[in-house]
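Tokens help. Consider this.
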Amino acid sequence: MQIYWIKIKRIIEETPEIKTYLLDCPQNFTWEEGSHTHFALEGFNAGDQPNRSLIRHMSISTLPHEDAIGITTRIKEQCSEFKTILRNLKIGREVAIFKTHSNVPLKRAGKNVYLLSSGVGLATFRPLALDYFKRTDSVNQMHSLNIDSSKHFLFTDLFKTTPDKNFTAQFVDNRTEYYEEVKNLAEDKDGLFYVVGSDEFLVQNIKVLREQGIKVEQIMLDKHEHQLSEFLSSNM
């Protein structure tokens, strides 16, 4: 397993609680849209066993052409040891990444693509939207629906309705409106539905989609193969 130690080159305050850490790209390191990585802080591998409290599974919110590895995360006032340390890191400090992989690359199958996310989960979809804007072929249209009760919506410079690209962006701040919109989107019985958020959020979205007649093979989750069956089988 290769561990890349890389420096923080920029910190963006996206909202009062959400920051994006832009990291240097190691030479010859690349990734695709929908990728996640293991993001670790100094000292995580100092002992005989990795200190898992200093490691988090994070989505990469950028694409390689942006020349930075973006990690976007919510840091609340009351937070974990990991987030407390991360909040205090300055530009130039080193962090580690390893085991980078994509479970949700953009499928170009001539269908409509729906991106369903909660809060900072939208960070996983930013690279998919960027990739779509760069090359729209074999995707009929893309629709993003994000729920965030804080009303501090993320990446609104990119996630905005753009008719000439067949791209629609929706932001809502309550569950009732969100799930009504999911039901409306699920009227497309041939669409591809990508879902990112907490496990509870995934389960509820799968339930709603399945009740509307969406097949499990049309639902894309940012989960490993063995985890997919756990989420999807209970809603067969």
Observations:
- The CA atoms of residues 179 and 204 lie 9 Å apart.
- The longest strand covers residues 4-13.
- The radius of gyration is 18 Å.
- The chain has two domains: 4-102, 111-233.
